[in-house]
Automatic annotation (TrEMBL):
Domain of life: Eukaryota
Gene3D superfamilies, per database record: Aldehyde Dehydrogenase, Chain A, domain 1 (3.40.605.10), Aldehyde Dehydrogenase, Chain A, domain 2 (3.40.309.10)
Name of this protein: Aldehyde dehydrogenase
UniProt family annotation: Belongs to the aldehyde dehydrogenase family.
Active-site residues from the entry: 241, 276
Pfam families: Aldedh
Single GO biological process annotation from the record: response to abscisic acid
């Protein structure tokens, strides 16, 4: 078995695929045994304690940074092969963001690892206490296809910084990037503690049958439920980065051109809408909608030309299954007549033009399912305040956006709308701020990461209390007299006067 990357080869793929849903006991399989062997081997190397050292963690973070520096063009080429992702989007939104995460971890790691002093009380006097971060152990990272480089390695930064051994399972839907990750991680990282497993449902199923110390999954809610169910069998904690219908509320007192460009940047400039925090739909007033639509059309024409299907600045739909899913959303009877811009598609090239729809029914598929593609419905209301009820009537989104100059509206938006993250007067940029936690709430995810939050996500905060042999109090030992009970009650919950009264026998038991 390779020390750098593992390619598990499985038989009976359809049986393993069904195993996710079938709880009927089955005899041990070769696939499960091989995955079990991998975890056992990593537990053995983790037990050596080497990952706990500052030096090892720094060396691996530097190796990861070098991996990104040395192979920028290879990564961009793989992303283009998998998604037709424009070079700029690959370099800025995947490679540069990863490098920034690495640099932040390298800069702050010593501080993150330092135990945090904690206050003690008179109950334990004399004593001192601290909170010591320690690695969880052997963790599994299952990444997504839409940002297959960033979403594979960014969580690993936190896992390494926290001192864990890691297994990465890249998405098979982005095969070129998956293969490149297996190769590069094998070449640059310490294979005794960091492995890559390539494959599809069968391999993921076999990995999920193992006991991990944490599972980090990025993807959709359907698979998120499968991951959580598998983790529950071993009481394994999970961090789930899912998605949802991220709304954009647009007020009328704004710089319309800037707002429109920023909406487009978050929607179509982010993998052509195939991003978990892309704007999913817009809410604006009936009176303002015509101006917003005209502005969107104008800017889309400027960015992508008269024939956006030929634009090299738009990613394609990832595969035929997702193309069919998006086509179904557009072709629904009560939706197809609502297209006011775009709608062109080329199935042979898996391309769909940026598409705007106006006043689609709220019970249509496009408004009840996460779109995850280049389609953008606009919902109109009489008063913008109605938008908050619309947003909160659905599942909690991963992100929510507001464009306004109205201070009271901003305050109400922040107080009223529950989402993984909020951005006012822009879209998606909170992802790049590593001092903010990035994660979902409710059906959009469990837990958060980025920066220090990544370190915390893969750490156990161990409580440590230090005492000396001085100050041993007889009051805690039998025989339990009324005087001892009174004093202990005062020590546990009373103030200074209560303690003095108890010492002089004046308190009531």
């Amino acid at each position: 078995m390779s020390k750098s990357s593992i390619h598990l080869k499985f038989r009976n793929t359809h049986q393993i695929s069904a195993r996710i849903h079938d709880t009927t006991p089955k005899p041990p399989s070769y696939e499960k045994e091989e995955a079990s062997l991998l975890v056992k081997e990593l537990r053995g190397t983790f037990a050596s304690g080497r990952t706990r050292s500052y030096e090892w963690r720094i060396s691996q973070l530097k190796a990861l940074l070098k991996l990104a520096d040395d192979n920028e063009q290879q990564v961009a080429d793989a992303l283009n092969s998998d998604l037709s992702k424009p070079q700029l989007e690959s370099i800025v939104y995947e490679i540069a963001l990863l490098k920034n995460s690495c640099k932040a971890a390298l800069k702050e790691l010593k501080h993150w690892m330092t135990p945090e002093k904690a206050k003690t009380s008179i109950t334990t006097f004399p004593s001192s206490a601290e909170i010591v971060p320690e690695p969880l152990g052997v963790v599994l990272v299952i990444s997504a296809w839409n940002y297959p480089f960033l979403l594979s390695l960014d969580p690993i930064i936190g896992a390494i910084a926290a001192g864990n051994a890691v297994v990465l399972k890249p998405s098979e839907i982005a095969p070129a990037t998956s293969s490149l990750l297996a190769k590069l991680v094998g070449e640059y990282m310490d294979g005794s503690f960091i492995r890559v497993v390539e494959g599809a449902v069968a391999e993921t199923s076999a990995l999920l049958e193992q006991k991990w110390d944490k599972i980090f999954y990025t993807g959709n809610g359907r698979v998120g439920r499968i991951v959580m169910a598998a983790a529950a069998k071993h009481l394994t904690p999970v961090l789930l980065e899912l998605g949802g219908k991220s709304p954009v509320v647009v007020d009328s007192d704004i710089n319309l051109q800037v707002a429109t460009r920023r909406i487009i940047a978050g929607k179509w400039c982010c993998n052509n809408g195939q991003a978990c925090i892309s704007p999913d739909y817009i809410i604006t007033t009936k009176a303002y909608a015509p101006k917003l639509v005209d502005a969107l059309k104008n800017e889309l024409g400027t960015f992508y030309g008269k024939n956006p299907l030929e634009s090299k600045d738009l990613s394609r739909v990832v595969n035929s299954n997702h193309f069919a899913r998006l086509t179904k959303l557009l072709d629904e009877d009560k939706v197809s007549g609502k297209i006011i811009h775009g709608g062109e598609r080329d199935e042979s090239k898996l391309r769909i033009a940026p598409t705007i729809l106006l006043d689609v029914p709220r019970d249509s598929l496009i408004m009840t399912e996460e779109i995850f593609g280049p389609l953008l419905p606009i919902i109109t209301v009489e008063k913008l305040e109605e938008s908050f009820d619309i947003i909160n009537s659905g599942t909690k989104p991963l992100a929510a956006y507001l464009f306004t100059n109205n201070k009271k509206l901003k305050e109400r938006f922040v107080m009223s709308v529950t989402a993984g993250g909020l951005v006012v007067n822009d879209t998606t940029l909170h992802l790049a701020v590593d001092t903010l936690p990035f994660g979902g709430v409710g059906e959009s995810g469990v837990g958060a990461y980025h920066g220090k939050f990544s370190f915390d996500a893969f750490s156990h905060k161990k409580a440590v209390l230090y005492r000396s042999f001085i100050g041993d109090a007889a009051v805690r030992y039998p025989p339990y007299t009324n005087g001892k009970v009174g004093l202990l009650k005062a020590l546990m919950g009373g103030g200074v006067l209560d303690i003095i009264r108890a010492l002089f026998g004046l308190s009531k038991v």
